[in-house]
Amino acid sequence: IKGKYDIHHAYYSDKLRQSLLSEQVILDSIKTALLENQFEIYYQPKYDLSNETIAGAEALVRWNHPVKGFISPTDFIPLFERNGFITDLDIYVWETVCRQLHHWLDNGQPMIPISVNVSRVDIYNPELTRILTGLIKKYNLKAEYLHIEITETAYTENPDQIISTVLELRKLGFIIEMDDFGTGYSSLNMLSELPIHVLKLDMRFIQSENAKRNRKNILSFIISLAKWLDLQVVAEGVETEKQAQMLKSMDCNYAQGYYFAKPMPHEEFENHIKQHNSEIIDEKDPSKDSN
Ligand code: C2E
Ligand code: MG
Ligand code: MG
Ligand code: MG
User: Fold this and answer.
1) SS3 13
2) What radius of gyration, in Å, describes the C-alpha atoms of the chain?
3) Per residue in 254-274, pLDDT tens?
4) Distances in Å between the alpha carbon of 196 and those of 130, 275, 288?
5) Which of 46, 60, 94, 97 has the most ligand 1 atoms within 8 A of CB, as the residue to mutate?
6) Span 123-151, pLDDT tens digits
7) From 38, 87, 236, mutation site for ligand 1 pocket: most ligand atoms within 8 A of C-beta
């Protein structure tokens, strides 16, 4: 008969075994995941705050795991970065997005740029520019339709290499966005060194409570600074009308967040764009109401 300590011991070692097991389950299933199309790309629209039109979208990957169900990228991206599988996954995401853009172009749909995430690992891949140019050639796209999101924390690992990669990507016509801006240790230094086009403000700045006056002042200051540097600003994680109004009053260019729309599968995203744009046209065209 086991005493209670044994039970506790069994409980903890069981927990430990479970977490090791689940990491192993994930590692084992990575190889088949791409082959079996278990990854799905969701699109989250980005809104122009001056007129509320959809000005772009971000591609965000989801994993429909056959055993574990829906897994969020925050749970598997770090693991993929550790074992190198992130490179295959990112390339898969970029290619799917390029194919999607090509499809919209073919169907005469109004084109909006799509932002893709580039892992801190892949930004150091010497093949990166070759892979990206290969994709836009293959799908007959202008580079400007593909926005490249890199993270501030990746920059600090080897600034010189990132600067030269970004310069090369810029020359090729890609638009470079700095994701999660304000979370690293050298944000201002990075701004003075790295020739990016767009700042994406980390949601921490936006979601701070009204009471936190300092945060609000810092937010307003960063937006002004971005203007001085000729950068566009996107606010991430906008969840309330109040936040959207505040950002608009601070002259922020774009907003992305649950208040406007959550990330959604591509069919839903296409419908969302059509519906949203027709609503905006209705509002602007009074003749539509006059019968
Ligand atoms: P991120 O690139 O900063 O993406 C923004 C995250 O914020 C997304 O989480 C999005 O769903 C979430 N979000 C958007 N609006 C709101 C809001 O109003 N409130 C809150 N609380 N959250 C909001 P998601 O999709 O879970 O992705 C998490 C992170 O995983 C991303 O952060 C990105 O770093 C990474 N990721 C996602 N897809 C990819 C990919 O294809 N490749 C790579 N390398 N990383 C990816
Ligand atoms: Mg991003
Ligand atoms: Mg972000
Ligand atoms: Mg993030």
Assistant:
1) helix
2) 22
3) 999 999 999 999 999 999 998
4) 19, 32, 42
5) 60
6) 999 999 999 999 999 999 999 999 999 99
7) 236
On the 0-12 / 13-18 / 19+ scale of CB atoms within 10 A, 26 is buried
CA dihedral 74, 76, 80, 85 (to 10 degrees): -120
Give which of 154, 200, 158 is closest to 177, Cα–Cα. Answer: 200
pTM: 0.90
Residue nearest to atom 19 of ligand 1 (CA): 237
Q: Which atom of ligand 1 is nearest to the CA of 81?
A: 44
Q: How far is the CA of 217 from the centre of ligand 2 (A)?
A: 24
Q: What is d(CA 198, CA 148) in angstroms, rounded to the nearest whole number?
A: 10
> How far apart are the C-alpha atoms of 24 and 10, rounded to whole Å?
20
